[in-house]
Every structure is written in structure tokens, then in C-alpha cells.
């Protein structure tokens, strides 16, 4: 329309036979010639002019300077109050709301901290009996709310649409399909939501030909099938490890995301030596996991061998003979595990991560035989409901045109299905496909419509994570975009004049609450139900009865089937990484920069290879030396070769990392990376491993060969071993701990004074005079190395609380990471750390030191692992404070080492003088800077910033403040109430986020605080105490249960 | 967020922050409670009323408008105005109007005043009509008013509207102030003229004397032209050196002073979108600071009051009747109140909210840098410091300005000199006992409590 308009300057121009004048003028910018010659040609006038060029420049310079000086005025800040202030909001005061996250992968009851109506932080909900703890991804999920790439409104084929249009078309198509031959299919995540279940049942009833397919990107289908076969409910056994005496795990990474995760708190409890006892943990696995790293005995073996181990365990415990061809040392371990299990009886538990119905059936049977109290089958976990066979069936049906309409919610099959291409093709054969999604992800861009859904912090809902344990989900902010919940759309299609909020409330009042108050349940976020709700049965939807087919009726047969399994070639294990999970949070810069607890890499996934295999397959990079750079650059940056991994005809090219503890003949690769749609360029990291995930089996037989190129990793820890420095991570066996004196294994270091050995705690060897610190508060932080599982929830909690910037892969590779809290991971170079220390002691002379120290740099094939969270140690005699030329860092009476950013001039002397290397320098401006295009570069992402903490600028040093804003707030609350601070009231972000109880914070001048007892515990020691820094952070020595008599 | 109102409503000053909708709801609730409370005594009362009405009709006296005014202001003014519809109808000549238009007598009015709810219930036509007309807002029952009171009130309402006296007052004042101005200038002008005349006189006298001298051939001794003081000064190197040093020091001093005041906005007095006079509110009307700036008690920010807080009072205060000056006239202030109405979407004529609101963008006066943490509640609630200590005589400020420099030195000084309020605060009991023993003092300053540590304000 607008293009038909014509603008004209003269009538002449409109003349179809244009005159030559018009034609000539078209080519000139100015109608008349610019009389340049007139000015510059006349030399005489120019020379006689009184204004010279220099004068002219002077005037211009002066007037510019004057004008800019005159314009120098302070900025005018505006304050805009509410017109009508909401009841609960007081500007400057945080509100907490209880809600729950249930994104299909992570399920947890949580508290949300909001400031002026903005959610800024996730906290654990202590009222929840189960799943009340957040992991790193849940902690980071608040940033997903402020994702600038969220879909802002309904889209149709890439164009903006409206909810009216979308709902109208959806209703039309669904009504046409109602009762017809073609199915209406809901392909969704696991909701574990009683109200959503009820709603979907109603939806099914209304339309008749509706199929609900539940899809978990990382499947637990076989465990679900086994449980369903045995106990009738589609769920997973719940484990409370806190009372366990013996834990045997065959390939189950239960401190990671195995069967939905959330077991670490209970496990950590059983690991703290109490009255001389702690659990004994035997772990069989092929790739190094968090769980394997914490095990007392770790046996590396291939996935096929894992099956045989399980079969043999079954044989040993049930007394039936199952013969396998396992190597002798594994057989020994198995018989030991079996006898330990039997010995512990009801306090023993066996878990397995083998994705095989047989294996899972055996596990349930053995636990039943043992009479295990740890394994709770009466109240199963409901956070995984996916059915692989139904998903595969769906793709077939779509291809054969049996599916009329497909509503996808909460899942991203075009990315996460192994046969994503088939799915995409099949998608085009449906009449209507709608993706209910927050992002224009791989699936959403393929569908007819994108129906934007709100973030869980903008949604209503409910969840039943464990049978009988209910959680409510409530919005903590009004929807930022024009979004609608999936359930609300279903309600409106069903013609109900009801919001999902009302629907949930009705359902709870009639079916769940049993007369209790809804508002109370909403306030608590959790509710323990006595009545059981009937959940919608999704298995009936599959055309054939898939769940029970091919399952041997008796476990003996199952064990024999396992024992008979064979492997041909290398085996690849696909696993979820701690930071990325199933990949739905890939556009979250906090998680991208979160270092993997084991490999310590960021912004990447990789192929984990054992050193032996790497050398054999030409995937090994020699250590760098003076003459050549190989495995490391001169800057320290870690390099890796590439490998082509092929399984079932699919090949992916992936960088290689040498992983100590990786069983020979096996590889591991993380799922969840390699996303391409709906995320910023910098965050499109890693390689997608889902194409290798054929038949939802995490174990695949693969061929691996070296490929061209060299990969640059961003790894935050370049040194892997402790080099025999047992002083850094003190450890003792349970026997030593129980029987020997503290000085034998946790002695106070001594230094030489007048050639006499004097304890470092003595004031005589101190450079400084001691202050009296007994008055007022004195904060200490205790880190229990036994309880810490390395999960990293504290790292993200610290990011969120303290506005720690994200710096990007390049900067991390230059060791310019900004994490205030890091979790160092050490491997032993010998079989054990004790062995390392002994080896170091025996080094004598230059020859052996050159040789042996070199050897000690490389980790063992099956090393012991230790995690050590390191943050600023808040030394009472801090080396950083004495070297600061401007006194920007100084000590407070409450034990905190203060950092005044506005005073810092950036000399970095403090960082150089810090023995713990915890100070972080702002090399660049990380906020509002296009070079660092992460969340702090857009208005939406900056909403997550904690207003109580300064956002640092370029050129200043920063570090852990021991959350001084939180301690100050606790003090102020007490002052305002006119009461002493309550016991254990002080918290830091990390200690509040720690679900395993490894991080305990408190005031050592208050006898009622837990920290006061921990301070005098015989396991307590201070890091590098021999330096005399007198840190306010203490560590509880690692005690390993070596199972000695 | 609003969806979450179901929980956490119990805030001890939530009445200030309630939306107007819920305020009205609340008032209705209160009313019901009041009614219930008086329910038992109703029979007694009605008989009393009967007696009283009877007796008053016997006396049938005219009321005293002066007493009526007092009674009106205490009991009625919250909802009624004489000439303007508010929560309730305008009451000027209400008695005459009712008897003319509706044929209702004083007894009806008295019954309505004492218990309108009962009348509505009884089905009285006009009672129900007026109830419906004013959005079913029940009138507070006033059984305590005697017949005499009511006749006094009615006498007050029957008064003729006074001529707008305020206007002429202003004119008069303007005139006087104008007169004052002119007279000052006149005096000054006269003085200037006087001095000019004197100067001219002196010059003339001088000239005349010289003329006389020349006429009489008297030599006027010329002052000897020695070395001028100036050149002597220039040649004195010592003096030059001292002067140079003096100049350098002085310029250094002033330069330092200049640079140190950069970013210090003491006296910053911006023009605000609405001319809000703290003098009228906090000074003339003695409203407590924290009545409006309520979050100062609990939060780090003192909070600029939400506009619904203003409307708690300004719903009935629609015009300014206080002291005026030439610059700030009644019309000026009324216009500012109108701005508030526009922002909150209050339709004053119909006494209802239109729903069209617009935020007021105040200019922020006190700007602390981001790296300094300041918490109002610490100083206001815990330390019990008067707002005026830092904000100055706000109650005298027609236009608000920054009173204190807000520099770190200023903070630190106060922390050094101010004693901590430890009395009756359980938090301080132990620490005060220990610290005062350590320092050997009775009273601890904020500095001794650690109030000078960097990390207490910078994090």
C-alpha cells in the first residue's frame, strides 16, 4: 500500500516522458554547483583575512570546552513511588514466598526471595520433608526468569500472533478431530502434579481420542517399569540414606541426577562419623561421578561388567549360583559387597543406574530380601513418569498420519530425541502442532504455533514429588510477557470459565487438604497428605502393553540374562553434567560458567577417556614442556584433541579430556550441551550427545577415532593432584579416627622458634599482637570435607547473592574466573592420598625428587578424590591487608575481612599475597558491556541483581565477604526486635544453600551456635595453618571408612 | 504479587498501604462491628430517643451555630462537607432542603443520624435512596448526639455561605508586602541620591577652593613624586616571594575546596513535579514524619509515600485553607492538590476513582553512591535518631532541600560522637556490659561498637 505512494518535487517529475532536465538533476546531489572555487580560488582574500586557521581552531576549541564545562551537571535521579502500594511490599525489605520448581527434570520445594516484587534468589524450604533442597540448577533457575530470549507472545510460523487466534484455531482443530480416527496427543514433561493430572483426565474424557505421552529427556523408563511391575505404581523407590550402614551402588550416581536426584542430604548425614560410626560405601562404575568420588571403595569397570556384578550380587545374596566371567579383583569386591550388605541387613541398601528392567527388578528384589529400611517402596518418588516406548510409538504414529494434533509442553524432542530428524519429519504430518514453551527452542521453531508459557516463578500449580508429599507453586511476580500456562489453555479449550489457580485451589480443597487451610499450605509451600490421590494412568495410552512385555517373571532369570550380557568394543556412557542437566537451562550464563565438579571445565562438554585408552587411540596430548606447548598453552589454558565418536551410524566430533578413574575400554559424554535454538551465540556451547542416545539407552557401543584439530578448554583448575601435601586435605581412616589421638592425624603444625619446634598457635611465633575477639560476634565458617559432595549449589547461590559477574569462556581460559567460592577437586597420584604423602616423605636427593615429583603430578588410574570448597578464609592475620597501599581491605572486629571497592585502586598486591588464591580482579567492566553479553548486559537480566550488594566496576579487587550483608541484616533484625541473636540465626548464601550440611556458619562467641562445637571438634583444622594466617574458615578433616576391623 | 494477598496481610501499619478499595471495605466492616456492639442497647436507646424527640419538639429551640461547628468538625467532617459532595452528601441547608423536597422533618434527620442502618432496614424510602446513591456506604451511627447537639449542627448547616474572605485577604497581604518592598527601595534610593549629592558637593568645593587658590596665587604644594609604593613593592624580592607563596597556598586551598565539593549536593533543592510543602504537613499540621515515610522504621529506604497514602487524608482535604503568601496562594496550593487527584485518578466531583493513574516522578534529593549502604531503620528504629538530625528543619521547608553534606566524613563524625541507645534493647545487654568494661566507659559510641569499620557500610 505504502509503496504506491510517490513523492515529487515538481510537476515535471510526474511527466511520463521525463524531460532531460529532470534526468540530469537526478544525478546531482545539489541543484546548483557548490561555489568552492569562489572561496578557495581567491588566494588574495584568503591571505588578507584576519582570521587564520589557527585562530579558528582556537575559537572552536575554546567554545567546545566551554560548552562541555557548562554542561557538567550532576544527573537528575528520579524516584517513582507506587500509586497504590501493594500490601506486602515495603521497598527495601525482602519478602519470601514458598513455591516449587517442577520443570520435568528438577523438582524441589523452595523459597523465593523477592525484592520490590522481583524474585532474586532461591532458598531451600526447610519445611519440606523431601525434595526441599535446591541444587545448582535450581539455584540458577531464577535467572531463567529474566532470560531476554524468552518468547514474548504467541507466534504462528515465526510471525507474531495472538492468544485469541491461537486458542480459536486450537479449539477448531480439536473439535474437528474429536472422536475421529486421528488422535489428539499431549506430549509433555513429567508434571507430577495432581491437579494437572486431573485436568488432563478431564481433557481426555471430553475429547475421547486423546493420548497423553510423558517424555523425560533423560529416561528412567526401565526403573519405572520394574517398579510398576513389582509394586503397581509408576514411580521410583525412595531412598533415605541417612541411616544407611552399607551402601552398594552399581553405576548409580545418586549424588548426581540419578532417578531425579535429591539424595545427597541423607547420604551426607550417614557420612559424618558419629559415635565412631559412618556408612560404608562401595561403588561400581565406569566413569568418574560425584558419587564414585565420595565412595570408600570405588571399582572401575565397564557397563557390561556392571550388569554381571549385579547378577553375581543377586546370586551371592540369594544363594543361587550365577557364574560370570568377571576378573578376579572385581569378583572379590562383589563378594565383599555382598557380605557387607547381608551383614548390615535392614541398614543396607543396593542401588543401580543400569537402564535395564532386569537390573532394576533385581535391585528391588535384593533390597526386599535384605529388608532394607533405606529403600522406601511404599511412598515412591513420582518425579519421573516418562515412557520411552510410548514416545517411540508416537513418532511412528505421527509418521503414519494417525496423529491429528500435537500439543507439546515442557519438552524439546527436536533437540533431545536421538531420532530428532524423524520427529521433525513426522511433525509436518500432523494437522496442528503447538509448542508450549518459554523459548523458541529447537522444537518450537518447527511447530505451527509457539504458545509462550510463563516461568515457574510466574505460575500456579501443584506437585506431588513423593507420594503423599504435596507442594504448591505460586507466582512470585506478575508475568513479564504475554504468556499463558499450558493448563490455563486446556481449561479455556474445555470451555471452563476458571483459571488454573482456582482449579488447583478447588482440587486441593476437595481432594487433598482434607479440611486443612489452603492459605496455610500456600504459606508453607508443602503439605503432607493423608489421603492418596489417584494420578492419571499414562501407560494405558500405548497401544500395546509395553510395560510388562519381555520381562522375565522371576529374578533368577533376570540375573541370568544380566550375567549373559556381552560387550563388543568400546562402551560409551551418556550422563547428565551437574551444571547443565538435560540441557533445558542452556541459556543460563551462571550454569554455563559453573565448573564441572570433576573435570573443572566450564562452557563445554567433552568425551572423558582413560589415559590408557587415550594413548592407544591417539587422543593423548603430551604434557607441555619448555620447548613445546601441547596439553597446556603458555597461559595455562588446557587443550584437548578431538575424537569422532560413532554409534549406530551417527558420528559426533567431540573434544577429549583425560579423566582419571575412567574405566579402561569405556568413555563418557555429557548430555545437555550443543543447543542451537533460543540461546545467545556465546552460550551455544558443547556438542549434542542426544543423537547417540539410541533407544534411550545411556550405554552405547561405539567406535572412537582421533579427529583433526585441537580444542581449547576453559578449565578453572589446572593442577590435579595434591603432590603429597597432606596438610591441605587432612584425612584419616575411620579406625585411626576412632582409636588414635588427634595429634596423630590432625596435629597443630609446628614452626621453628630458636631452633625449637613451637605450635603455630603460640603467640610467641606470631608477627602480630592478638586482638581480644571475645566480645561481640565472631564469625566462623566450617566446611565438612566428609559431608561435601561437590554438588556446587553453594557456588551458584554465591553468584546470585553477591552479584558475581559472568566473564565468558575466553576469560576463564585466561584464569580470570570470578567465582568467590570454588570447589577444588584433588586426585591422588598413588592409590590413596596417604600413599602420596608417604611417597613425598621418601623423596631424597635431587634425582629422586625430579623423577618422583614429576610422577606425582599425574593422577592414578583409579584415584581417591577429595573436594575442598575454598572461599576467602577471612584470616585474622590476613596477608592481603598488610600489603594494600590504600587500605582498601581491612579487618572487622566480627572476623570478616572487609573489601571497600570504592577505595581499591587495583594494584592486585593483595591477590599476589593471598596464600589461598581467593581474590578476584575485575579485569573488565562486566556489566553493561557488549563485550560480555550475558545477563548483566540487558535490562531484564539485571533484574536479578541483589540491591544490597554493590555491582563492582572495572579495576577493583573483589572476594568473598562472608555475606556481610546477610550478617548485618541478621544483627539489625535482632536490634530492631530488641533481642539477642538467636542460635544459628546467622547464615551465608553458601551455608543456606548447602543441603548436605557441609557448610555451617555461625558466631563462635555464642555457645549455642553449632559452629562453637565444630570449632573444637577433633576433626577441625585451619587451612595452611603453618603460615600463621589464623583463618576464620575451618575444615573438618576427611574420614574414610576403609572398613578395617 | 497482588495475587498473593491471601497471605501476609498482617502488617502493623498496613492501613497506610491498603488500596483505597480495601479501605472502603474496611470502613464498612468497622461499621458493622460498631452496630453490633450497640445492638443490645438499641431498645433502650430508641425509647430514649423517643423521649428526647418528644422533649425537643416541646422546646423547639434554635441551635447555636458556633457549637454546631465544633460538633460538625468532630463528628461529621470526615465524610461531609457543607458545600461539596464527599463520601456523604453536602449538608448546607440540609434541613430546609429535606423538608422542601422530601417532606422530612428534623425527627427523621435525628433518627437517621443516630441509626441510619435501622432506617434503611425499616424500608424508609428516602433512607434507602440515599444509601444507594452513595455506593451503599453506611453512615456511622451517632447515638451519642443529643437533640440539642443535632439542632446545633443543623443551625450550623443552615448558615449562609460566607463571602470568600480568603481572596481579599490575599490581596490585602499582597498590597502590604508590595508597600513594604517599595518603601525599602525608596529609602535606599533616597540614600543613593544623598550620597551622590554629597560627592558632587565635595568635588565642587574642591574645585572652588583650587580656583580661589589660583586666583590668590597660592601654590598648592605638589606631593613629591618619589618611588611609587607599587614599584617599591615589585623590587622587594622578599615580599614578592612571600606573596607568591601566599598565592600558591591560597589557590591550593580554594582548588582543594572546589574539588572536594564536587558531588556534594548540600542545599540541592530541585523543582518537584508536585509542590509538596513539608512546612504545611510536618510543620503547620504537625504530621509525624514516619506517618507517611513509614518504611523508615523497617527498611533501608525511608520510602517516598505511595499516592494512596496521600489520599487517606486528601480524599477529604480538597482545598488549602492555611496561611498563604504572595507566591504561594490558595489557588496555587489547590492546583497542587488537583495534580495529586490527577495522578491518583480521583474524580473529586463524583467522589470516585476513575482508575486512570499516572506515576509521579519525584526528583530524588538525597543520592548516596551505590557503594555506600545506609539503612534508615538502623538509625530511626534502633538508634532513635530524630529525622531532623540529618534532614534538617524539614518542618520549616516550603521546598525540600538536602540539609546535610552526606559525605563520609560527616557520617564518621556522627558515629564518633553519638552514643548507642543500649537501654531496653536486649541485643545490646551483653555486648554493652563487656565493651564498657573494656573501654572503661558508661556510654559507648557507635565507633566503639565497630561503626567505623569499612565493611559496615561498604559491601
Question: Mean pLDDT score of chain B, rounded?
Answer: 80
What CATH architecture of the domain at 731-1040 in chain A would you give? 2-Layer Sandwich
Detail the poorly predicted runs of chain B: 1-39, 51-60, 165-180
**Helix content, binned percent of chain A:** 25-40%
Silhouette of chain A: globular
Q: What distance separates the N and C termini of chain B?
A: 29 Å
Tell me the number of strands of chain A: 42
Helix count of chain A equals 34
Overall strand count of chain B: 3
Output the structural class of chain A. Answer: alpha/beta
CATH hierarchy, class of the domain at 731-1040 in chain A: Alpha Beta
Most extensive contact: A-B, 66 and 70 residues
The fold-level CATH name of the domain at 731-1040 in chain A is Alpha-Beta Plaits
What oligomeric state do the depicted chains represent? heterodimer
Shape of chain B: flat
Give a verbal description of the structure.
The complex is a heterodimer of chains A (1045) and B (459). Chain A is of the alpha/beta class and 1045 residues long. Chain A has 34 helices and 42 strands. In chain A, strands 6-5-17-16-15-7-8 form a 7-stranded mixed sheet, sandwiched between helices. A 6-stranded mixed beta barrel of chain A has the order 21-26-23-25-24-27. In chain A, α9 crosses α14, α12 crosses α13 and α14 crosses α21. The longest helix of chain A is centred in the N-terminal third of the chain and has 18 residues. Chain A is globular. Chain B folds into 3 domains: 148 residues, Cytochrome Bc1 Complex, Chain D, domain 2, CATH 1.10.760; 136 residues, no CATH class; 46 residues, no CATH class. In chain B, 55% of the residues lie in helices and 1% in strands. Chain B is an all-alpha fold. The N terminus of chain B is likely disordered. The chains are: A alpha/beta (1045), B mainly alpha (459). At the A-B interface, β1, α20 and α32 of A face α15, β3, α17 and α20 of B. β1 of chain A pairs antiparallel with β3 of chain B, so a sheet runs across the interface.
Amino acid at each position: 500500500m505504502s509503496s504506491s505512494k510517490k513523492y515529487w518535487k515538481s510537476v515535471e517529475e510526474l511527466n511520463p516522458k521525463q524531460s532531460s532536465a529532470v534526468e540530469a538533476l537526478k544525478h546531482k546531489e545539489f541543484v546548483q554547483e557548490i561555489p568552492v572555487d569562489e572561496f578557495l580560488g581567491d588566494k588574495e582574500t584568503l591571505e588578507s583575512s584576519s582570521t587564520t586557521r589557527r585562530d579558528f581552531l582556537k575559537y572552536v576549541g575554546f567554545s567546545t570546552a566551554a560548552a562541555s564545562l557548562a554542561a557538567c551537571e550532576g544527573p537528575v535521579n528520579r524516584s517513582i513511588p507506587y500509586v497504590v502500594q501493594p500490601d506486602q511490599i515495603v521497598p527495601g525489605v525482602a519478602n519470601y514466598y514458598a513455591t516449587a520448581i517442577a520443570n520435568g527434570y528438577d523438582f524441589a520445594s523452595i523459597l523465593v526471595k523477592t525484592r520490590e516484587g522481583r524474585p532474586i534468589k532461591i532458598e531451600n524450604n526447610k519445611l519440606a520433608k523431601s525434595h526441599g533442597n535446591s541444587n545448582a540448577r535450581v539455584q540458577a533457575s531464577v535467572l531463567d526468569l529474566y532470560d531476554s530470549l524468552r518468547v514474548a507472545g504467541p507466534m504462528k510460523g515465526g510471525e507474531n500472533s495472538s492468544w485469541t487466534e491461537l486458542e480459536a484455531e486450537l479449539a477448531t482443530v480439536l473439535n474437528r478431530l474429536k472422536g475421529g480416527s486421528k488422535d489428539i496427543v499431549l506430549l509433555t514433561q513429567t508434571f507430577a502434579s495432581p491437579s494437572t493430572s486431573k485436568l488432563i483426565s478431564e481433557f481426555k474424557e471430553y475429547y475421547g481420542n486423546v493420548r497423553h505421552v510423558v517424555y523425560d529427556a533423560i529416561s528412567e523408563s526401565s526403573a519405572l517399569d520394574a517398579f510398576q511391575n513389582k509394586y503397581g505404581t509408576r514411580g521410583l523407590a525412595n531412598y533415605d540414606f541417612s541411616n544407611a550402614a552399607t551402601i552398594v551402588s552399581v553405576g548409580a550416581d545418586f549424588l548426581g541426577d540419578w532417578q531425579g536426584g535429591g539424595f545427597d542430604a541423607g547420604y551426607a548425614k550417614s557420612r559424618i562419623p558419629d559415635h565412631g560410626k559412618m556408612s560404608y560405601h562401595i561403588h561400581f562404575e565406569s566413569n568418574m561421578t560425584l558419587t564414585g568420588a565420595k565412595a570408600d571403595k570405588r571399582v572401575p569397570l565397564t557397563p557390561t561388567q556392571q550388569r554381571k556384578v549385579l547378577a553375581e550380587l543377586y546370586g551371592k545374596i540369594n544363594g543361587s549360583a550365577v557364574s560370570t566371567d568377571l576378573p578376579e579383583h572385581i569378583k572379590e569386591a562383589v563378594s565383599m559387597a555382598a557380605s557387607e550388605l547381608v551383614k548390615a541387613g535392614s541398614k543396607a541398601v543396593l542401588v543401580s543406574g543400569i537402564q535395564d528392567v532386569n537390573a532394576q527388578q533385581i535391585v528391588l528384589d535384593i533390597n526386599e530380601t535384605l529388608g532394607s529400611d533405606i529403600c522406601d517402596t511404599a511412598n515412591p518418588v513420582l518425579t519421573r513418569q516418562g515412557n520411552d516406548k510410548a514416545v517411540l510409538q508416537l513418532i511412528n504414529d505421527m509418521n503414519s498420519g494417525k496423529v491429528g494434533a500435537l500439543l507439546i509442553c515442557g519438552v524439546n524432542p527436536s533437540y533431545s530425541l536421538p531420532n530428532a530428524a524423524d520427529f521433525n519429519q513426522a511433525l509436518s504430518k500432523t494437522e496442528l502442532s503447538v509448542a508450549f514453551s518459554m523459548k523458541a527452542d529447537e522444537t518450537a521453531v518447527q511447530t505451527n504455533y509457539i504458545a509462550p508459557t510463563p516461568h515457574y516463578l510466574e505460575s500456579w500449580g501443584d506437585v506431588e514429588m513423593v507420594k503423599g508429599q504435596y507442594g504448591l507453586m505460586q507466582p512470585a511476580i506478575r508475568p513479564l510477557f504475554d504468556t499463558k500456562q499450558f493448563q490455563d489453555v486446556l481449561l479455556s479449550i474445555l470451555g471452563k470459565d476458571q483459571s488454573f489457580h482456582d482449579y488447583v485451589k478447588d482440587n486441593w480443597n476437595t481432594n487433598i487438604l482434607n479440611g486443612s487451610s489452603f492459605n496455610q499450605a500456600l504459606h508453607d509451600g508443602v503439605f503432607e497428605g493423608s489421603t492418596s490421590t489417584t494420578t492419571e494412568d499414562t501407560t494405558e495410552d500405548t497401544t500395546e502393553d509395553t510395560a510388562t512385555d519381555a520381562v522375565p517373571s522371576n529374578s533368577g532369570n533376570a540375573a541370568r540374562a544380566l550375567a549373559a550380557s556381552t560387550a563388543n568394543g568400546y562402551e560409551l556412557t551418556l550422563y547428565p553434567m551437574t551444571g547443565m542437566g538435560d540441557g533445558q537451562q542452556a541459556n543460563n550464563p551462571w550454569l554455563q560458567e559453573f565448573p564441572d565438579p570433576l573435570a573443572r571445565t566450564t562452557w563445554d562438554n567433552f568425551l572423558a577417556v582413560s589415559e590408557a585408552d587415550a594413548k592407544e587411540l591417539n587422543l593423548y596430548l603430551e604434557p607441555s614442556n619448555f620447548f613445546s606447548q601441547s596439553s597446556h598453552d603458555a597461559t595455562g589454558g588446557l587443550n584437548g584433541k578431538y575424537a569422532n565418536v560413532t554409534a549406530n551410524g551417527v558420528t559426533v566430533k567431540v573434544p577429549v579430556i583425560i579423566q582419571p578413574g575412567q574405566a579402561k575400554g569405556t568413555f563418557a559424554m555429557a548430555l545437555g550441551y550443543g543447543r542451537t535454538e533460543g540461546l545467545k551465540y556465546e552460550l551455544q556451547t558443547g556438542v549434542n550427545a542426544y543423537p547417540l542416545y539410541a533407544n534411550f539407552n545411556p550405554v552405547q557401543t561405539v567406535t572412537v577415532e582421533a579427529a583433526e584439530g585441537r580444542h581449547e578448554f576453559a578449565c578453572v583448575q589446572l593442577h590435579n593432584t595434591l603432590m603429597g601435601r597432606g596438610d591441605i586435605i587432612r584425612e584419616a581412616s575411620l579406625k585411626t579416627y576412632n582409636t588414635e589421638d588427634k595429634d596423630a592425624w590432625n596435629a597443630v603444625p609446628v614452626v621453628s622458634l630458636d631452633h625449637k619446634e613451637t605450635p603455630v598457635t603460640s603467640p610467641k611465633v606470631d608477627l602480630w599482637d592478638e586482638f581480644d575477639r571475645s566480645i561481640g560476634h565472631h564469625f566462623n565458617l566450617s566446611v565438612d570435607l566428609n559431608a561435601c559432595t561437590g554438588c556446587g549449589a553453594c557456588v551458584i547461590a554465591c553468584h546470585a547473592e553477591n552479584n558475581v559477574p559472568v566473564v565468558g569462556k575466553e576469560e576463564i581460559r585466561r584464569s580470570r574466573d570470578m567465582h568467590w567460592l570454588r570447589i577444588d577437586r584433588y586426585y591422588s597420584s598413588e592409590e590413596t592420598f596417604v600413599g602420596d604423602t608417604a611417597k613425598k616423605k621418601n623423596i631424597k636427593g635431587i634425582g629422586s625428587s625430579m623423577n618422583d615429583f614429576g610422577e606425582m603430578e599425574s593422577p592414578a588410574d583409579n584415584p581417591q578424590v577429595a573436594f575442598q570448597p575454598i572461599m576467602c578464609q577471612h584470616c585474622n592475620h590476613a596477608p592481603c591487608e598488610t600489603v594494600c597501599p590504600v587500605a582498601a581491605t581491612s579487618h572487622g572486629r566480627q572476623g570478616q575481612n572487609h573489601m571497600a571497592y570504592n577505595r581499591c585502586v587495583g594494584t592486585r598486591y593483595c591477590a599476589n599475597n593471598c596464600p589461598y588464591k581467593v581474590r578476584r580482579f575485575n579485569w573488565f567492566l562486566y556489566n553493561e558491556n557488549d563485550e560480555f553479553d550475558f545477563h548483566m548486559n540487558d535490562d531484564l537480566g539485571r533484574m536479578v541483581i541483589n540491591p544490597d550488594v554493590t555491582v563492582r566496576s572495572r579495576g577493583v579487587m573483589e572476594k568473598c565477604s562472608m555475606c556481610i550483608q546477610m550478617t548485618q541484616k541478621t544483627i539489625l533484625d535482632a536490634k530492631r526486635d530488641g533481642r539477642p541473636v538467636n542460635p544459628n540465626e546467622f547464615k551465608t548464601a553458601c551455608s543456606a544453600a548447602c543441603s548436605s550440611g557441609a557448610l555451617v556458619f555461625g558466631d563462635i562467641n555464642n555457645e549455642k551456635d553449632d559452629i562453637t562445637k565444630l570449632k573444637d571438634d577433633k576433626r577441625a583444622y585451619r587451612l595452611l595453618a603453618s603460615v600463621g594466617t589464623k583463618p576464620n574458615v575451618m575444615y573438618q578433616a576427611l574420614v574414610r571408612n576403609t572398613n578395617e576391623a | 504479587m497482588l495475587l498473593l494477598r491471601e497471605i501476609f496481610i498482617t502488617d502493623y501499619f498496613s492501613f497506610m498501604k491498603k488500596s483505597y478499595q480495601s479501605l472502603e471495605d474496611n470502613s464498612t466492616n468497622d461499621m458493622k462491628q460498631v452496630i453490633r456492639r450497640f445492638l443490645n442497647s438499641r431498645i433502650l436507646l430508641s425509647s430514649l430517643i423517643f423521649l428526647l424527640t418528644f422533649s425537643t419538639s416541646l422546646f423547639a429551640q434554635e441551635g447555636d451555630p458556633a457549637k454546631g461547628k465544633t460538633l460538625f468538625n468532630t463528628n461529621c467532617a470526615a465524610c461531609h462537607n457543607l458545600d461539596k459532595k464527599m463520601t456523604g452528601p453536602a449538608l448546607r441547608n440540609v434541613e430546609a432542603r429535606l423538608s422542601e423536597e422530601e417532606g422530612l422533618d428534623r425527627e427523621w434527620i435525628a433518627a437517621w443520624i443516630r441509626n441510619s442502618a435501622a432506617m434503611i432496614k425499616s424500608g424508609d424510602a428516602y433512607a434507602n435512596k440515599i444509601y444507594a446513591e452513595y455506593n451503599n456506604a453506611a453512615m456511622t451511627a451517632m447515638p451519642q448526639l443529643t437533640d440539642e447537639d443535632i439542632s446545633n449542627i443543623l443551625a450550623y448547616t443552615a448558615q449562609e455561605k460566607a463571602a470568600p474572605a480568603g481572596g481579599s485577604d490575599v490581596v490585602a497581604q499582597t498590597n502590604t508586602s508590595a508597600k513594604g518592598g517599595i518603601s525599602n527601595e525608596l529609602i535606599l534610593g533616597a540614600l543613593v541620591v544623598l550620597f551622590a549629592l554629597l560627592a558632587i558637593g565635595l568635588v565642587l568645593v574642591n574645585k572652588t577652593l583650587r580656583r580661589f587658590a589660583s586666583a590668590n596665587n597660592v601654590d598648592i604644594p605638589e606631593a613629591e613624586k618619589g618611588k611609587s609604593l607599587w614599584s617599591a613593592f615589585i623590587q622587594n624580592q622578599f615580599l614578592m616571594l612571600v606573596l607568591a607563596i601566599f598565592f600558591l597556598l591560597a589557590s591550593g586551598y580554594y582548588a582543594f575546596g572546589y574539588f572536594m565539593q564536587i558531588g556534594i549536593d548540600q542545599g540541592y533543592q530541585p523543582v518537584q513535579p508536585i509542590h509538596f510543602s513539608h512546612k504545611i504537613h510536618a510543620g503547620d499540621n504537625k504530621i509525624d514524619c514516619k506517618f507517611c515515610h513509614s518504611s523508615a522504621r523497617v527498611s533501608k529506604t525511608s520510602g517516598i509515600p505511595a499516592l494512596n497514602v496521600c489520599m487517606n487524608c486528601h480524599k477529604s482535604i480538597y482545598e488549602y485553607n492555611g496561611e498563604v503568601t504572595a507566591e504561594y496562594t490558595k489557588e496555587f496550593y489547590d492546583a497542587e492538590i488537583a495534580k495529586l487527584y490527577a495522578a491518583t485518578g480521583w474524580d473529586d466531583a463524583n467522589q470516585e476513582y476513575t482508575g486512570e493513574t499516572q506515576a509521579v516522578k519525584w526528583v530524588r534529593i538525597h543520592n548516596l553512591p551505590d557503594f555506600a549502604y545506609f539503612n534508615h531503620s538502623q538509625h530511626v528504629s534502633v538508634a532513635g535518631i530524630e529525622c531532623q538530625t540529618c534532614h534538617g528543619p524539614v518542618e520549616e521547608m516550603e521546598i525540600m532541600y538536602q540539609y546535610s553534606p552526606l559525605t563520609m566524613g560527616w557520617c564518621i563524625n556522627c558515629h564518633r560522637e553519638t552514643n548507642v541507645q543500649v537501654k531496653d534493647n536486649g541485643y545490646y545487654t551483653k555486648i554493652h556490659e563487656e565493651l564498657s568494661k573494656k573501654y572503661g566507659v558508661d556510654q559507648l559510641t557507635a565507633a566503639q561498637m565497630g561503626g567505623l569499620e569499612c565493611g559496615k557500610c561498604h559491601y
